[in-house]
Structures are given as C-alpha cells and as structure tokens.
Amino acid sequence: MTGTPKDRAELLQGTLDLLILGTLLAGPRHGHAIAAHIRRTSEELLQVETGSLYPALHRLEANGWVAASWQLSDKGKRARYYRLTPAGRKHLVGEQGRWESMSRAIQLILKAAGQQGV
Amino acid sequence: MPLWRRIGWLLERKQKVSDLEEELRFHLEEETDAQRDAGVTQAEARRAARLDLGNPVVIVDDTRAAWGWTVWEQFVQDVRYALRTMRRSPAFSALAIVSLALGIGANITLYSFTDAILVRELPVSDSRSLVRMTWHAPEQEVHGSSYHDSSYTDLAAGYTDGVFSYPAFRIFADTGVFSSVFAYQGTGPISVSIRDQAEPAVGEYVSAGYFSGLGMRPAAGRLLVDADDHVGAPPVAVVDFGLAESRFGGAGAAVGQRVLINRTPFTVVGVAPRGFFGTDPEVAPAVYVPLHANLVLDAENPYSPPLARYTDSSEFWLEVMARLAPGVSLAQAQAVLAPQFHQMNERLHAAGRWTQVPELVLVPGARGLDGLRRGYASPLLMLMGLAGLILLLACANIANLLLARASARTREIAVRLSLGAGRGRLVRQLITESLVLSVLGGALGVAIALRGQGAATSLLANGQSDFTLHAALNWRVVLFACGLSLVTGLAFGVAPALQSTRKDLRSRRAGSRRALVVAQIAVTLVFLVAAGLFARTIANLESIDVGFNRDRLLTVTLNARQAGLTNDAAIAFYRDLRTRFAALPGVTSVGLSDMAMIGDGRSMDMVVANGGEPKGSLIMNAGGGFFAAMQIPLVMGRAFDDRDDRPGAKPVAIVSQTFARANFGTANPLGQPLELHNPTPKVAGLTFEIVGVARDTRYASLSVVGTPLVYFPFSSAIWGNIGQMVYEIRTNADPAASAERAIRDIVHDANAGVPISRVATQATLIDQTIGQQMFLARLCAAFALLALTIAVIGLYGTVAYDVAQRTAEIGIRMALGAGRGRVLAMVIGDVLMLTALGLAMGIPAALAASTLATSFLFGLTSHDPVTLAAAVGGLVGAALAASYLPARAASRLNPTTALRHE
Hints:
The complex is a heterodimer of chains A (118) and B (902). Chain A is an alpha+beta fold. Chain A has helices spanning 15-24, 31-41, 50-63, 86-117; strands at 29-30, 66-72, 78-84. Chain A has one domain (15-117): Orthogonal Bundle (Arc Repressor Mutant, subunit A). Chain B is 52% helix and 16% strand. Chain B is built from 28 helices and 24 strands. Chain B has a 6-stranded mixed beta barrel. A 6-stranded mixed beta barrel of chain B has the order 16-17-22-19-21-20. In chain B, strands 15-23-14-24 form a 4-stranded antiparallel beta sheet. In chain B, helix 18 (505-542) crosses helix 27.
C-alpha cells in the first residue's frame, strides 16, 4: 500500500481479501467495479490500489474462493467477471467472524485504555 | 491450489497472460470513462487513469506470482541459462558429463546385474505366496543330488539341501496348508532332436501341478496335467517359447509336433509362456516333461533304481515348491509340515539310513532357487561398492571443476548479487546447472550401461555358451538411474553453489579443492591396489603347474548314448572316433576320458586299497592315449593302452602319487589290488590291479593340491554304463576355429545323431573355473583405469587453475631471478605434496579394503607389498604426468607479460 494518501485509512494486512469477497456477496462484478464499490461504500475512506487488486483477485481464484469468466459489461465490452464460489462464501463467513471478534477485542482494549487515561 | 489446476494454467499460460493484459486494458478504459464522467477532458482522464493503474508490468508480474508457477518458470529460465553456460565452456561441460556418464553407467550396469540376480522375482502370478522346501542338517550327508544348485554348507546353519523323496513330496501335497504343491528336477544334459537335428540342451522333469502351481498359461496348446504324469502315460512335452519360435517357427506351429529327447519320441502338447524359465534363474530348460518320463529317459542310473525313486523315502531327488493356501502364513505351514517331515526322517534314522535327522525349513519362493544369489551376492555387493566409489570420485571431480569455475564467475555472481538477486535464487540457479549436467550425464550413462551390460554379461559368462543370466533395463533400473543422476547432481552441486555465493569465497575455496584432490588420490590408490591384487591372483592361478600341459589342447565333449547307442556300441564308437580325430592334420595325439581334467564337476567315490578302511578318492575313467595326450608323466609302471579296453581284459587301475603315498607309504604300489567300496552291480566283486603311478595333477579345482586320484580304463565304466566322453586333442599349433568345423564334420560323419555338447580348449575350461576372479580382476582393472583417469583430470584441472591464479606471483619470482627449474620444481613439489597426503590416507584405506577381498585372492596375501609398491609408483607417475603440462607452462611464463596480467 505504498503511496496511500494520509487521509485514507490504511488497509490492514489480509483485509483486502475480505473486502473483495464481501463485495462479491452482492453478485458478480469485474475488477474495476469491485474497486469502485469498495471506494464508494467506504465513503472514499478505503482506496484499493490496482496494483494490489489484480494479484489479490487471481490469488483468490487460485484458492478456489472466486471463479472468473468473460462476460459483456453493461456497456457491451468484454470484461472479466468474478463471482463468489461456495467455498469462497464459507471462507468469507469464517473470516468475517474472525474480523468481528478482532475488532471487538481492539475496541475493548482501547476503551479500557481511554478510561484509565481519564 | 491443486497441482492439476496449476499445471493446467501452466499449459495455457500464453492465453492467461494475454487475458490479464486485456483485463487491465478494460480496467484502464473503465477508469478513463469514470474520470471523464467526473468532468475532465479525455486527455486528462486518460492521464489520471494511467496514474491510477500504476506500472502494468509490475502488476502482471505480481499477478503471475499469484498463479503459483513462478518456481516452474524460474526453473525453465534456469535450465535455459544453464544450457547457455554449458555452451560457453564446452570443454568443462564435456569433461563433467563424460566422467559422470562413466560413473553412472558403471553403477547402472552393476545395479542391473544386482537386480537380475538378487532382486528380480520369478515371472509368475502372485509370486509372494510361493514357498520353497529346504532341509537343514548339522552335517553334509548326501542322499541324492540335484541338477539345481540348492545345497550348501554354511558355518552358522550347517548343511542345507533342497532335494526330497517322492513320498515326502506326497505328504506335503496332502496337507491342507497349500493350494498346490509341485516338484521338479533338472534332466541334466540331454539331446533334443527336432526335424532330425540334434542339439544338446537341458530339460526339466516337472510334476503335473508344476505349471498350474506357478500360475502359468500356455502360449499355445496346453500345459501338463495329472493324466500325463504316471507310469505308462503317453510321452508328452511342453517346450520353451524361444525354442518353439526358433525351431518350429512359432508357438502355434510347435503343438502336436514330435521331438526326440535322447532318441525317445515325445509329442509337444504345448508351449510355455514367453519369458518363462522355470524356477531356477540359473538355467532355462528347453523342454518340460512329466516326472515319470525319467523312468524312460534316466532308466539306467545305477545309483537311483527307477522304481525306488517313487517308493523309497530315502531316495532324495526332487526339488519341491508350493503355493500357500489363502490365509495361511509361511510360519503356519512350517508348523504343520515340520513334525511330519521329522517323523519320516526319524524312521529312516532308526532304520540306519540317516546318521542324523534333517529338519524341514520353508523359505519364501518368490525369487526361485537361490544358487545364483549365493554365488554372486558378495562379489556383486563388493562391485557395487566399488562402482559407488567411482561415482563419488567423479562427483568430487566435478565439484572441484565447479569450484574452479566459480572463481572465474566471481564477477558475474558479484554483479548479480549486487543487482539484488537473492542468494537463495542464485544458489537454486547454480544447483540447476549441476542438475542439468547430472541429468545429461545420467542419460549418457544409460547408453553406456546398455553397452556395459553386454560386455559384463560376456565377462561373467566367460565363454560358457549356456549362460542364461541376462541383465536388462527394467523400471527398477531406470528408477535407479534417475535417482542416481539427481543425487549426484545435488552431491557435487550444493557445496560449490553455497560456497561461490558467499561473500568471502576466496580464502576457503582453495583449501576445499585441494582436499578433494587429496581424497581422489586416496580413493584411486584403493582401486589400483584392488586391480593389482586381482591381476596378480589371475597371474598366479594361470601359472600354476597343473600337472599336465594345458597349452594347445582342445577338448570335445559328446555323449553317444544320447543317439541311442548301446553300451558296447558306444565303446566301439568312442574308440573309432579317437582314430578319426588322430588322423586330422596338425593333431599329434588324442586321449579320452569321462571328464575334462579341470572344468567339469568332479566325481567322488570310495576306493578301498588293500581291503582296509575305505579311503575317499576321486576317480576318472580314461582311455588309451590319455596320459600321452595330456602329457602326464607316469612315475612308475605303464599307461593304459587299447588292450585294457577290450572285453574281458584284466581289470587294471592307475593311481596318482598322492593316492599311492597315502595308501601304501613307501611300499611299491604296483601290483597291489584295489576294490570299490560301494560298487555298481556291474563291477561288484572285481579287484583292480595297480599297473602304474601317475604324477599328481590338479583335478576339478585349480587351487587344491595333491588330490588322491584313481584312473580306470574308460570301458570298465565304473558308473555302470558308459556315458559322456571328453576327447583331449593335442595339436601342433594353437587350436584354430577351423579345427572345430573339421571336428564337427568328423562326428557328423561317424554318427549324425550324436550331439556335440562342447568344444573348448583346456585353457578356456581352466579359465572358467576361475571365472569369478577373472571377472573381478577385469572389472577392477577397468575401474582402476577409470579412477586414475578421473583423478588425473582432477589433478590437472587443479594444477592448471592454481598456475593461472599464481601467474603474477610466478612472474614476480621469475623477475626476481628464479630460474625455470625453480618454478617447475615449485609447481611439481606442490603436486607431490598433495599426492603424498593422498597416499597417507589411501594406504591404510587400501590395506583395510584389500582385507575384504581376501577370499577372492590366490597365492598372495591381501597385504601384498609388491602390489602396493606398484600402485603407489603408478599413482605418483600419473600425478607427475598430470602436473607436467601446467608446470611447464608456468616455467615458460614471460615475466613481463605475467606481471601485466593483473
């Protein structure tokens, strides 16, 4: 994530996979649409680098969590569409649980620290 | 990621890359559209989109990494690079590949023999459920004999034998632990006559369950069944697949044809499957006949009366194998059978037929009989060890050359390291280079092994025409070759790769290279000593005074009885044939005897001298002219002549000096009577008068001195009836190949039905008895030469490299006034020091290794000073020769040029 502007949140290691899989939960999308969706939905806080996006997509494909096929985009151009596989869905559920407990844990610690600091 | 997907992607990688490029192009266009929609100009939008995308080359690279075959791609790159590097230094590559190929080839050749002799199983179905019957007794006590090599004595287990009586075989067959039990025995030498053409062969008597027990299906016709194997059954035979092809023109054509076995007609009912050779890897029978056919084919054997073979439980003559019933283990079968066998022998013991009670031991039968394994296991393992050493030597050499080359590539490697190549990546690439070398060497090694197998087979056969063992390339051998190539590649590649990518490579490298050279010299010395010991053993064996003149003596072996001649007709035929041979041009004298003096199995019998205690002696039936042709001097009395072979002649005998000394001391043996201890009916009650004393000769074995030996006239046929005969033909010049043609014509003229089983010089027969030593000696000599070559190459490479490295130093020395002689002495002195270190390690190693070879040596101890001195001298000479060229080059350096060198 080099060169990420200061006003954007840094992506935590491993969270990009989670974001991509979460995005695909709504249905198949091509690479650009995935990046746009993440940016839009995070209210421009998260910016996915193209240089990270495509290696990540292909890694997910290699792991069998997403499948890809060539389809025509709404503008009538050939685009590579990614969709969630059942394995990917299962992986997402697991990762989501891990993420939630992790963020809860961090919040608890920060809250305790805040109280002590007061 | 599953491997298949990875490989699938690898195959369509061109497509994948262009797909990825299209995907990124699409992304760029989408982004441009998005920017334009945000309200900037087309050019501005394009610029922004490009900026957003970043460097597409990096993205493609990163994405390819996600596909999971970077390693493969890099491997292909490395291989290409390795091939380029090899082309740049062809001399080094050729040297490395050839020395590896020699090492790997030697190992594959030997492994293929080890595989054929020690590992390969019988080509039968479910060979694991086969068991073979043997019995143990504390001491050897012969109650029958086998044409298969199944009896032996070893220090731990005592005497082991594989022959059983027919009643014992029936008992085994009637227990429930086997699904089938079958018995067999070799026929010994027979004549097989097909379409009026007689040829010597061996056959096998087999019980009806033999083929079905082994799980064989016929290639044509049918195999033997119960109805074929009883008294009075029509004579039928199953023939070998190869025989059917060569003599009948195919398996199908053989069925229903007639063959004459020792003049008795048999009908071919079927053909054994292709590649089937019975149960003994040592012999491949040409024909298989039912057991009971021996009542016809072997009716006259005085020591095994036909009927007793099937009724007498002390008549041991059958080899027995069985197939375990499903769910029965070898140990369970053993537990059931052993008591029954014991009981049976207990009865024989009680009846005085046995002095001890043999015990049954079942052994796994998957690999058939083990005579060949026993005979060759230890020399083969020894040779495998030597071949392994050769390969080690070759590896050390290549590692050495690689280290030398690595310093030439210091710059290249330093540049690559400083450009950011990871050390691991570089090491991997250097190892790939080694593996490419070793795989090429391995491939060439397989080619060498294919030729080597032929050469080694003929070495091992040593002139025996009926040698059946053939090593072949099978999947195990190929696997061995592949594994060996990879292991050697790693063995010589890893250390140099690690060392040359280290930053501080210079200081330690020279040391390790010199250590390798020292080790090579040490190993080479071991080989030279081994080769020397075996060469001297051969020389000793060949210069033994055998007691007769072995030169220019041709032997011809044949058996007139196989042509259906009666005893008397055979005697007349043999006598007539001797006259015919004697008339050949260039022949000075002809003798005949029932055995070749050295080369045939010996016959042992008990002879009583003076009616006293029976004393063991070897015996030989010899005809008139024997002593003259063999040039065995008679120290007393007379030789046999034609009178002694006439019907009704007075029974006479000639004894050897040792026999005379042992039985009569200093008394005159002439005129003394001799009796046979256990005579056949024909000679029972006869007393033989000693008419001569012959000089001692070696008999049967080269190395046994002073054998008691009694000669009888050949027509007295101590064995009951006359059998095979060996003619000893003494010629003026060395027996030529043309002589064999003439001899075959003479025999054919005399009786076309008599097959000649062997024509060989006496010298060849002697060589065959020392075949194992000859084989070892030749192979060791070849290995020693190989080792020496490899070591000289290594030494030369090291010295040449050192001289190149020290060019400047030598230049300075010469500029300071060192003469050529000094420089020469300096370089050569260095080599001599390395050699001396190598010898210091090699001499104890050679002494230790030669102790292992003691049992193969003759006429010298394993610590033979002459051999050791010769090996050391040879090695020092070779080292000097290897260093001469580089040393001379160093001494001719022009100091000015040398100093400008750096």
